[in-house]
Amino acid sequence: MAEVALRNVIKRYDDVEAVRSISLDIPDNEFVVLVGPSGCGKSTTLRMIAGLEEVSAGDIYIGGAIVNDLPPKDRDIAMVFQNYALYPHMSAFENMSFGLKLRKFSKDEIKKRVDHAARILDITELLDRKPKALSGGQRQRVAMGRAIVRNPKVFLFDEPLSNLDAKLRVQMRTEIKRVHQMVKTTTVYVTHDQVEAMTLADRVVVMNGGVIEQIASPQDLYHHPRTRFVAGFIGSPAMNLIRCRLEQNGVGLRVRISDAISLPVPAPLSARYQALTGKELIFGLRPEHITEPRRSDRDQQSEFTATLDVVEPMGMETMVYFTVDGQEVCGRVEPGSAKGPGEAMPLYADMNRMHLIDPQTGLVL
Amino acid sequence: MADTVQTWSPDLQGSLPGISASASARRGLRLFMRRRSSIAFLMCLPLIVIIAGLVLYPACYSIYLSMLNKAQTRFIGLDNFTFLLSRDVFRQVVEQTAIFALSAVFFKALIGLITAHLINNLPAKGQRKWRGMLLVPWVIPLALSSLGWWWLFDPTHSALNYVLSSLGFDEIPWLSSPYWARFSVILVNVWYGAPFFLIMYLAALKSVPEQLYEAAAIDGANAWQKFIHITLPMMRNIIAITVLFSLIVTFANFDIVQIMTAGGPRNMTHVFATYAFMLGIRSGDLPLGAATSLFMFPILAIAAIFILRGVRKRGREIG
Predict the structure, then answer these.
(1) What is the mean pLDDT of residues B223-248?
(2) For residues B29 and B21, what is the distance between their CA atoms, to the nearest angstrom?
(3) Of A131, A174, B20, B88, which has the highest C-beta tally within 10 A?
(4) What is the pLDDT of residue B300?
(5) Which of A46, A67, A70, A79 is the best mutation test for B, with the most CBs of B within 10 A?
(6) Whether residue B6 is found in the same domain as residue B140
(7) How high is the pLDDT of residue A297?
(8) Can you list the domains of chain A with their CATH numbers?
């Protein structure tokens, strides 16, 4: 059993509260990703789980036992660091076997475990090399190998792919996912890259300013963000967040985002938003829900025309940027249908995917 | 970036057979001046001249001098060296120099390492204070501090003996007994040189990435295992270089021994430099003095080759 639990955990540095009373339950074998911007407290949280930082208040449980006062070596965890933290004077084999040697494993057992991990990570040929003679990706594999051989209760990853180039990052991401599927172990993974979070996690924990904004599966997080921060943080390009006013229009509602553009709220959502009529709100719609008019059964009232400021061809699709009441808005259109900068283009907003956010509380309504 | 600026004018090449030699020389000089390596050489030239004048010339001259007779009138080859090797006193000097240098360097390195660790584990504010205080022996002029120690060891006014007798112990003949005199000069050398090791090791300790210790902590290492498996291997190059540097300086030490014992009693504390001074300056046999001082060279050269080879090898492996 290796579930991890955090109960009202706080971390203070003098007067600064880096982590503010967070609680989190991670079941056995789950892959949880802590994601958020720099300084949000995600790495501090991971380091508290590892025992590298003291907990100012609250409790951390690993496998049902409180580990607040246990040193890292007694927590039965393994950690992969951002800059690998490989011992430069030791070979890959020695790096991987160091922890086992300190724990007085027999030579045969050490060799068996290292060979097994090396096979999983495809680094058997590299075991005699020193870290300096390895590429970034190979070093990261050795660092993962060092964690795997220990067969720990919990794997901790602290932005392990940040030092790799874009191509290698994608490769290693797949590798980490593959390794987790083979070596089923509870994993806590920290990253600021939301693509990593979405692709790797069973559940994503979005942190901001030392608090947890939302805990959800990647799909749930993307489609049902609970706060303005999560809505804006998850997704690339980010969700469009536009100031708006909710207006009554006969029996229905309309979202007015500028003098010229007001979009109808679909009937199934009108009842939910009825009480908000007349209020200043934030209208959220992802770029992929602002397209050229495609479907024949579309609601033509959701169409509008915008003069494009910037056009970014991406190959499979083209991103178009235009301004609504001084706010930049992004849409995602078919490459063939995109107009040039300065030209007017008819666009369609899929209002079934709309979100309304209270600007005061920042909560999605 | 290329370190030369290539200028190529095909229409000029060969088409001006009457081009003057002075124009060609000017062009060559211009090209030479444009080369970055040339500018670097010219900027280093004053230093090269100073080193050649103050180090290279005296070194070569002392080699030449060591092969002359006492009156410096006749070339006698290696006779001065064979003469020295045949003398018991010289063999004693070699032994004492080796004991003096090796033990002093060992204790300087050990004390430097321990104090560097202690200071490194202090809060930043306290570190500055202690670092400053512990550097004091190193910044006091050695001749002055040696005189201070000489006074502390003085047989009639010795502060150390006063303390010992106040505590009921026998007084110690610090500088008049051969073995205590050896101990005393080594002690002063260690007192003087340990801060150098301290400051170098402190810098080396601070350059060990914190994450290596964190990784070791997670791997299960205790404080001693972290020191043995992380700190020491990561500091091996700086330890090797400081030991080599200190060996050279300690082998060539002059001030401490000259001021405190002048090589006595019974030549038991002589090191190469003081013995060379005694033979060359006091006894007026400059060639023999030069030959004595040159004995240090092969010993230190061999040590330097082995130590620097290790440093290069580790540098390549660790990066």
Answers:
(1) 92
(2) 12
(3) A131
(4) 84
(5) A79
(6) no
(7) 66
(8) 4-224 (3.40.50.300), 240-357 (2.40.50.140)
Which of A72, A89, A130 comes nearest B218 by C-beta?
Answer: A72
- Indicate yes or no: CB of A87 within 8 angstroms of CB of B209: no
- Determine the Cα–Cα distance for residues B272 and B98; give it in Å rounded to an integer: 10
Q: Which residues of B touch A188 (CB under 8 A)?
A: none
Give chain B's domain count.
2
Copy the structure tokens of residue B140.
């006091």
Strand arrangement, sheet containing A262-264: A262-264, A252-256, A240-249, A280-285, A355-357
Residue A284's φ and ψ, nearest 5 degrees, are -115, 130
Pair of tokens at residue B149? 């120690």
Last residue of a domain, one of B11, B37, B65: B65
Answer yes or no: do A132 and B318 touch at CB < 8 A.
yes
Q: Which residues of A touch B225 (CB under 8 A)?
A: 102
Strand A31-35 to A203-208 pairing? parallel
Q: Are strands A154-158 and A186-191 parallel, antiparallel or unpaired?
A: parallel
Q: How far apart are CA A130 and CA A81, in angstroms?
A: 18
On the question of pLDDT at B19 being above 70, the answer is: no
Q: Are residues B57 and B163 in the same domain?
A: no
Residues B143 and B259 in one domain: yes
The verdict on B54 and B85 lying in the same domain is no
* Sign of the alpha-carbon torsion through A208, A211, A212, A213: negative
Do residues A130 and A88 make contact, with C-beta atoms less than 8 angstroms apart? Answer: yes
Beta bridge partners, A187, equal: A31, A155
Answer yes or no: do B120 and B60 share one domain.
no
Return the amino acid letter for A223. Answer: H
Nearest residue on chain A to B233, alpha-carbon basis: A89
B125 and B226 both lie in a single domain = yes
Four-residue CA torsion sign, A74, A76, A79, A85:
positive
Q: Is residue B155 domain-resident? A: yes
Q: What is the pLDDT of residues B301-311, one digit of tens each?
A: 888 898 888 88
Domain stop point among B40, B65, B90: B65
If you average pLDDT over residues A152-179, what whole number do you get?
87
B152/A contact by beta carbon, under 8 A: no
Q: Mean pLDDT in chain A?
A: 90
In a domain, B310, yes or no: yes
Q: What is the mean pLDDT of residues A68-77?
A: 92
Most B CBs within 10 Å: which of A52, A95, A144, as the mutation test of the B interface?
A52
Cβ–Cβ under 8 Å, residues A73 and B219: yes
**Does residue B3 have a pLDDT over 70?**
no
Bridge partners of A322, per DSSP, are A308, A329
Q: Which of A71, A86, A103 sits opposite B217 (nearest CB)?
A: A71
Q: At what angle do helices B178-206 and B142-153 cross, to 10 degrees?
A: 140
| Residue B14 pLDDT grade (very low, low, confident, very high; cuts 50, 70, 90) | very low
In a domain, B70, yes or no: no
CA dihedral of residues A53, A55, A56, A60 (deg, nearest 10): 160
- Which amino acid appears at position B62 of this protein? S
**B272/B233 same-domain check:** yes
User: What is the span of the domain harbouring residue B44?
Assistant: 1-65
Q: Does B123 touch chain A (CB under 8 A)?
A: no
Q: Cβ contact (<8 Å) for A85 and B317?
A: no
Contacts of B228 (CB under 8 A, 6+ apart): none
Chain B residue with minimum CA distance to A88: B318
pLDDT computed for residue A1 by the predictor? 57
